Amino acid sequence: MYVCMCHGITDRQIREAVCDGVGSMRELCAELGVASSCGRCAQYAKQLLDETLTDTQVPQLTAA
Q1: Are 27 and 37 in contact (CB under 8 A)?
Q2: Which one of 3, 25, 30, 36 is most buried, by most CB atoms within 10 A?
Q3: Cα Rg for the chain, rounded, in angstroms?
Q4: CA distance 39 to 24
Q5: Long-range Cβ contacts of 41-46 (<8 Å, 24+ apart)
Q6: Residue 27, domain CATH
Q7: Which pLDDT tens digit goes with each residue over 7-20?
């Protein structure tokens, strides 16, 4: 699904960027250009960023 119509950025591209190391909206904007024109996509792009970061985090092991 297209998230940023100005730059033709999809949700898949955002998720892939996060998996490749992007960890903030500033980095996402620099990498893909998302939310750099009209800004309408910023809220949803941030939501995708946060969800993907949460989904890709490795659970930390705790010592017993």
Answers
A1: no
A2: 3
A3: 13
A4: 16
A5: 41/3, 41/4, 41/5, 41/6, 41/9, 44/3, 45/3, 45/4, 45/9, 45/14
A6: 1.10.10.1100
A7: 999 999 999 999 99
Other Cβ atoms within 10 Å of 35 Cβ, number: 23
Q: Does some domain include residue 63?
A: no
Tell me the pTM.
0.84
What tokens appear for 4 in the block? 């940023």
State which residues form the domain around 32: 2-56
Q: For the chain, what is the domain count?
A: 1
Q: Which tens digit of pLDDT belongs to each residue from 25-64?
A: 999 999 999 999 999 999 999 999 999 999 887 555 555 5
Per the domain annotation, does 27 fall within a domain?
Answer: yes
